[in-house]
Amino acid sequence: MPIGNTRHYMPEYTLECDDQQAQQVQRLAVRHGLTEREVLEQLVAVGLEELD
């Protein structure tokens, strides 16, 4: 990475869900007007907060 680059590295992860989990994520996304990615990001954030 060049010196002075202000862009931050954002790691990417892959999550495999079973059919039931995928349907739950899809329902939450539709219900709240979010993308499935946004739902997953929020679920991870809430889960990590619970660990603190």
Automatic annotation (TrEMBL):
Lineage summary: Archaea, Methanobacteriati, Methanobacteriota, Stenosarchaea group, Halobacteria
Protein name: CopG domain protein
Highest taxon, organism lineage: Archaea
Organism: Natronomonas pharaonis (strain ATCC 35678 / DSM 2160 / CIP 103997 / JCM 8858 / NBRC 14720 / NCIMB 2260 / Gabara)
